Amino acid sequence: SSDHLVITDEALVRLIREYTREAGVRNLEREIAAICRKIARRIASGNTDPIRVTADDVPGYLGPRQYRYGMAEEHDEVAVALGLSYTEFGGDVLPIEVILMRGKGNLVLTGQLGDVMKESAQAAHSWLRARAQQFGIDEEVFSRTDIHVHVPAGAVPKDGPSAGITIATALASALTGRAVRKEIAMTGEITLRGRVLPVGGVKEKVLAAHRAGVKRIVLPEENDKDLEEIPANVRGDLNFLFVKSVDEVLAAALVPSAAESHA
């Protein structure tokens, strides 16, 4: 009873984030029951003092955390952009990394990506290559450089078109040397003409971004109606940018070059 045991709200949040990963509450109930059994044994052994379980106490009852969620970057970084994903377990942040190597113009994609996500990467690469002059990129770099795109957590399958603008941003950052703003995350499908198309799972993605410490989220313009599903307290903590084109995404996500800063 509450006379013997209180589990704080902060402890419950830690339980949910670090010890369960499911759409329902079955595993949460199981973990709470495990805590209760341990406390019941203490009471049965003669310790009748009220017990308050805080967030710091949870590992003592359940051991090390079982799951980790992505967090926003700590610094503006070149060649890394933060996307947003949606799975059966909810939303999460999805960093996308790019590295350039001397080579023959190959595009290498790793991270256990599905066919649709690979096609999104190819579309982003083709769009940026076609617009190289606009971004001050030497067109020859595409024929003498291999570009490697990686999505971490390689053991987890990933698919869908919604990482398109994130891949485009990471590629543009790597090829221009301009860092990506650390406080921004994004989701949206890309077309070869640079249009940004709507995606699903916006509520779950926004909640994941909020949990990760993201301050600004880039969404397709046609997803503006989805904000109605997001709790008001979460909306109030975030700044949303609705876009129709990849040009708008890059203008918001990339730190200005030295030349632009002094212009």
> What about the largest sheet?
4 strands, mixed
The CATH topology annotation of the largest domain reads as Ribosomal Protein S5, domain 2
Helical content band: 25-40%
Class computed from helices, strands and strand pairing: alpha/beta
User: Numbering strands along the chain, what is their spatial order in the largest sheet?
Assistant: 3-4-6-5
**β-sheet strand percentage:** 15-25%
Named CATH architecture of the largest domain: 2-Layer Sandwich
The counted number of beta strands is: 11
State the order of secondary-structure elements, H for helix, E for strand: EHHEHEEEHHEHEEEHEHEHH
At the first level of CATH, what is the class of the largest domain? Alpha Beta
Rg, rounded, reads: 22 Å
Count of discrete alpha- or pi-helical segments spanning 4 or more residues: 10
Total domains: 2
Uncertain residue segments: none
Mean pLDDT: 89
Q: Give the termini distance in whole angstroms.
A: 67 Å
Shape: elongated
